[in-house]
């Protein structure tokens, strides 16, 4: 029995009341078996038997009695019973108050919550993910997993965040526990070694805690994929040493994307389009200009941005509360809110400005002041809290860096479409012209709204029809997966972006490419196309029609045909 279990806490807190109750009952029963009684004529009679004494004390202690049995009591017995009544009432009151205090005790409530949480996780009978950290990024991930009908288990130190989760309109129940995800017992209770656990997302805002989670996964279940949020490069290296599947540094990711938008705008737009929210329309913005840039705030985000902008050959002026001496840029002491500081930094003649502090109101003030002095300035803003999104949108900066959104999108992409990040990296090697041509093709075939990306694995779980034909020795190409099940002459609204076979990726595979067991294919298209494609992969009759133009005979007719032959 674990010392922190609810049952152990009950025994520990109720020890004194239970001992007192047992002692009072024992003394009361013993007294009744020793004190002489009287018979119906008032003559002395032997004391009660143990059975009668136990029976009498049992109902007297809880109900103040129903009468004198087996006959009327003697005066001595009545005096003893009076003492029994007061003693048992006092002890029972003490016990009840102790129980009430126990139920309001925080440690007991946590033990009960942990016990319920552990049972709910143990009873999960479908694949699930463990999400550690339910802040803005973790909450977005949980909501997205619920929309995809994927189960999740949540752990967070802040009980208020978990209470907010209960108010969300999730379609499935999400077991949640308030505790430190870096503790072994909490990870085990969350299902680290559960047979249906499919991965862990460590999205807390504490790098050492995320590192501890990586260590637990590496040592207790090394084959399990783990995605980690990290904000310091030194800890990121230690996470990789522990076998982290993916690390997400929102500051470094955005800085790299900003640099990409400078030297390869078509690649940036392709990235933005494929990783955006499906169904939305991206607002057309101008490309980040080359030239002089002002960076306000030299924290983790500012440092990452300055590093990337210097690589692009930008002239940097830095505004920070602490004077810095670094090659490649000029440092000015200040916050950037003061108009005179911005003027001293040359905002009137600058090409771009980044409000990179960790305070949203400061960033808004910087942007307003800078735009008053230079209306044509290209402004990049850091948004720290999702609750202030409307303020940032109203200001209409050219780019908004929201760490929670970046983390959530990256984590979901690596969970649901692990081929997508690899495809985007490979696209960067192909160059801007290649990305421009691909984006033009996708817009023609799919429209201007942000499409949906998904991944199809040729395995027995999701592609039973494909597996059946391939194992029979028949050649199945990619083409049937791109055709409309209701009319094979029409194409589905989807495009195959990449095919992975034996760890080798083929970008934009041709429709005639033969498929093999174990292939993984990355598609982009509409939700309707995805649903119809899943039907094709599972339904043998539909697949046969798309391959040959003819309906396949039923299993009974095929059996009779083989017997006749």
Assembly state of the chains shown: single chain
Strand order of the largest sheet: 5-4-3-6-7-8
Number of helices: 23
CATH architecture descriptor text of the largest domain: 3-Layer(aba) Sandwich
- Helix residue percentage: 40-55%
The secondary structure category is alpha/beta
**What is the 3D shape?**
elongated
Describe this structure in words.
The chain is an alpha/beta fold and 565 residues long. The protein folds into 4 domains: 6-103, Helix Hairpins (Orthogonal Bundle), CATH 1.10.287; 120-248, Rossmann fold (3-Layer(aba) Sandwich), CATH 3.40.50; 251-416, Rossmann fold, CATH 3.40.50; 451-557, 2-Layer Sandwich (Alpha-Beta Plaits). Helices cover 50% and strands 16% of the residues. It has a 6-stranded parallel β-sheet with strand order 5-4-3-6-7-8, sandwiched between helices. It has a 6-stranded parallel β-sheet with strand order 11-10-9-12-13-14, sandwiched between helices. Helix 2 packs across helix 3 and helix 11 (250-263) packs across helix 17. It is elongated and about 115 Å long.
């Amino acid at each position: 029995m674990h010392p922190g279990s609810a049952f152990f806490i009950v025994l520990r807190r109720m020890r004194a009341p239970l001992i007192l109750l047992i002692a009072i009952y024992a003394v009361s029963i013993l007294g009744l078996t020793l004190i002489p009684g009287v018979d119906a004529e008032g003559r002395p009679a032997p004391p009660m038997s143990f059975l009668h004494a136990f029976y009498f004390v049992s109902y007297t202690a809880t109900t103040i009695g129903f009468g004198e049995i087996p006959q009327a009591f003697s005066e001595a017995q009545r005096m003893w019973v009076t003492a029994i009544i007061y003693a048992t009432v006092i002890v029972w009151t003490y016990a009840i108050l102790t129980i009430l205090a126990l139920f309001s005790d925080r440690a007991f409530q946590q033990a009960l919550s942990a016990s319920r949480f552990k049972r709910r996780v143990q009873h999960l009978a479908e694949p699930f993910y463990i999400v550690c950290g339910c802040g803005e990024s973790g909450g977005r991930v949980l909501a997205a997993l619920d929309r995809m009908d994927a189960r999740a288990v949540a752990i967070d130190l802040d009980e208020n965040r978990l209470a907010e989760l209960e108010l969300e309109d999730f379609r499935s129940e999400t077991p949640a526990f308030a505790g430190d995800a870096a503790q072994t017992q909490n990870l085990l209770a969350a299902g680290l070694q559960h047979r249906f656990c499919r991965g862990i997302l460590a999205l807390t805002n504490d790098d050492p805690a995320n590192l501890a989670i990586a260590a637990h996964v590496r040592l207790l279940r090394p084959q399990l994929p783990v995605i980690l949020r990290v904000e310091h490069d030194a800890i990121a290296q230690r996470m990789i040493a522990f076998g982290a599947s993916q690390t997400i540094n929102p500051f470094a990711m955005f800085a790299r994307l900003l640099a990409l938008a400078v030297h390869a705008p078509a690649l940036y737009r392709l990235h933005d389009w494929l990783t955006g929210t499906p169904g939305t329309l991206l607002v057309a913005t101008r490309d980040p200009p080359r030239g002089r840039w002002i960076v306000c705030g030299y924290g983790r985000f500012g440092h990452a941005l300055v590093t990337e902008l210097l690589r692009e050959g930008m002239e940097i002026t830095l505004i920070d509360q602490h004077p810095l001496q670094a090659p490649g840029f000029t440092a000015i002491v200040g916050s950037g809110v003061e108009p005179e500081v911005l003027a001293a930094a040359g905002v009137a003649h600058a090409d771009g400005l980044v409000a990179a502090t960790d305070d949203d109101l400061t960033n808004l003030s910087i942007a307003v002041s800078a735009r008053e002095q230079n209306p044509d300035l290209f402004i990049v803003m850091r948004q720290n809290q999702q609750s202030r999104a409307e303020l940032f949108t109203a200001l209409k900066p050219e780019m908004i860096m929201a760490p929670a959104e970046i983390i959530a999108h990256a984590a979901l992409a690596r969970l649901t479409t692990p081929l997508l990040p690899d495809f985007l990296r490979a696209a960067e090697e192909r160059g801007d012209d290649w990305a421009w041509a691909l984006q033009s093709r996708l817009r023609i075939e799919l429209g201007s709204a942000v499409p949906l990306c998904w991944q199809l694995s040729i395995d027995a779980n999701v592609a039973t029809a494909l597996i059946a034909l391939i194992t029979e020795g028949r050649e199945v190409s990619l083409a049937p997966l791109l055709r409309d099940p209701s009319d094979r002459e029409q194409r589905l609204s989807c495009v195959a972006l990449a095919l992975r076979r034996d760890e080798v990726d083929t970008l934009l595979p041709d429709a005639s490419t033969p498929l093999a067991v174990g292939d993984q294919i990355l598609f982009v298209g509409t939700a309707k196309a995805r649903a119809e494609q899943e039907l094709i992969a599972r339904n043998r009759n539909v697949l046969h029609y798309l391959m040959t133009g003819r309906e396949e005979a039923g299993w009974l007719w095929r059996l009779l045909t083989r017997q006749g032959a």
